[in-house]
């Protein structure tokens, strides 16, 4: 067992600060081997590149116009103005999608559209707005252009052999556009993390069922599954394990063998029927890393590791489980997905001011859910959403959350806070 500190009379280990718990987890996963695969470009969105990508060609492969106008020799327009225009003869047209034929000679020009390939002899484009037609074969140029104006040169976007995207890069829609422009149809990426989810407790029934007296619907399995799926993981639901240690161990052992990350909710607090700690210790290699963090809500979370699989025993209360997911599970999933620097700050944040005094116990990190209310000519108000950790509606009603650090004993009304927005 890798936890530190003395146990109290109830067998509880002293609470671990949140940052230290995350550091212990990520250090334990530091040498994790991540599998890779090759996938098609359309399927690579939100995947992480497992290799550096170099440009196989110049982009663009030929100079192109960035404006509708006329391809010209820049020197022919020198000094042109509305009071003293220069005159150019239209000697050809650039057809879209075709290599231009012919050459722009002195005193001549070609009509060209945005994206058209620059004809030989030209080195700039005059916008239509800066020309006046004289007749069907002649134009006045009323504004001069310099060499390279209104065009993109060969390789100006990216040169052949130069880095396109680095290993560890999260592929976004604009990145797929770059790779498509370079003719890259397949990329090497890290495999999606595999996550196994199970709930524990004889009082739990599937969320689709109507619970009899004494039973409650399983909320955590669907919220945790959705959270993992949003992060790009492949999720397997192992159902509800009873409070029997034999049944629970068999299910958890199977899930651990088949996944990179395993989540179970319930069974993480101290009690005769809570089996999480015993079962993770039984799996071993190395077993439990952390049990209990200085966090509200979410104090009884268990973090373990068995043969390279991260195991999280999350509190049964839905809000506590979601808080622990954001703080601990998300960085682990990012690591297994190939992120170079796992982080819990994936969501945008804004600055707001709290609308009341908020108390907090020193020595723990407080996670405060809030609604945001706009104020005219001022920062938005952060209004705490009050409720217990078993009330999932508090998260549904919240627009975001802020954190009160461990040393603080609360915050005063009007204090500025960073509110992390819930998506």
Give your account of this protein's structure.
This protein is α/β, with parallel strands linked by helices and 423 residues long. Helices cover 18% and strands 31% of the residues. It folds into four domains: 18-35 and 192-337, Molybdenum Cofactor Biosythetic Enzyme, Chain A (3-Layer(aba) Sandwich), CATH 3.40.980; 42-59 and 158-190, Molybdopterin biosynthesis moea protein, domain 2 (Alpha-Beta Complex), CATH 3.90.105.10; 64-152, Molybdopterin biosynthesis moea protein, domain 3 (Molybdopterin biosynthesis moeA protein, domain 3, Beta Complex); 349-421, MoeA, C-terminal, domain IV (Beta-clip, Beta Barrel), CATH 2.40.340.10. It has helices spanning 18-28, 173-181, 220-230, 245-258, 276-283, 318-337, 393-397, and strands at 36-40, 53-54, 64-65, 69-72, 86-93, 108-112, 124-127, 131-135, 138-141, 151-152, 163-165, 186-190, 194-200, 204-205, 216-217, 234-241, 261-265, 286-291, 295-296, 302-306, 309-314, 349-354, 358-359, 365-375, 378-384, 400-404, 410-411, 416-421. The radius of gyration is 31 Å and the shape is elongated. It starts with 17 loop residues before the first helix and ends with a strand. The model has no long low-confidence stretch (mean pLDDT 90).
């Amino acid at each position: 067992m890798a936890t530190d500190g003395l146990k109290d009379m109830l067998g509880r280990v002293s609470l671990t600060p949140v940052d230290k718990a995350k550091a212990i987890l990520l250090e334990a996963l530091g040498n994790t081997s991540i599998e890779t695969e090759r996938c098609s470009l359309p399927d690579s969105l939100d995947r992480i590149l497992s290799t550096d990508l170099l440009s196989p060609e110049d982009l663009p492969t030929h100079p192109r116009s960035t404006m509708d106008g006329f391809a010209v020799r820049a020197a022919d327009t020198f000094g042109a103005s509305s009071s003293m225009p220069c005159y150019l003869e239209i000697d050809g047209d650039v057809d879209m999608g075709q290599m231009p034929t012919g050459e722009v000679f002195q005193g001549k020009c070609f009509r060209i559209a945005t994206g058209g390939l620059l004809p030989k002899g030209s080195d700039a484009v005059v916008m239509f707005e800066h020309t006046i037609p004289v007749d069907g074969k002649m134009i006045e140029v009323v504004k001069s252009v310099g060499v390279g104006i209104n065009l993109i040169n060969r390789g100006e976007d990216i040169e052949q052999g130069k880095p396109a995207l680095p290993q560890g890069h999260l592929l976004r829609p604009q990145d797929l556009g770059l790779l498509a422009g370079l003719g890259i149809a397949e990329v090497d990426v890290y495999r999606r993390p595999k996550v196994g989810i199970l709930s524990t407790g004889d009082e739990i029934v599937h969320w689709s069922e109507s619970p009899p007296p004494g039973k409650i619907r399983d909320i955590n399995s669907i919220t945790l599954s959705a959270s993992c799926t949003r992060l790009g993981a492949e999720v397997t639901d192992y159902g509800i394990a009873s409070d029997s240690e034999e049944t629970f161990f068999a299910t958890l052992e199977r899930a651990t063998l088949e996944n990179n990350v395993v989540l179970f909710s319930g069974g993480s607090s101290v009690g005769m029927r809570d089996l999480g700690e015993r079962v993770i210790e039984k799996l071993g290699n190395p077993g439990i890393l952390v049990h209990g963090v200085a966090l509200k809500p979410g104090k009884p979370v268990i973090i373990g590791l068995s043969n390279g699989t991260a195991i999280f025993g999350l509190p049964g209360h839905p809000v506590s489980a979601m808080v622990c997911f954001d703080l601990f599970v998300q960085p682990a999933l990012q690591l297994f997905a190939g992120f170079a620097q796992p982080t819990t700050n994936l969501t945008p944040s804004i600055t707001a001011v709290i609308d009341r005094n908020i108390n907090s116990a020193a020595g723990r990190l407080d996670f405060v859910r809030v609604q945001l209310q706009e104020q005219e000519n001022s920062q938005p108000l952060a209004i705490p959403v009050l409720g217990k950790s078993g009330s999932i509606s508090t998260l549904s009603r919240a627009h975001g959350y802020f954190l009160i650090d461990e040393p603080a004993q609360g915050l005063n009304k009007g204090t500025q806070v960073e509110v992390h927005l819930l998506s």
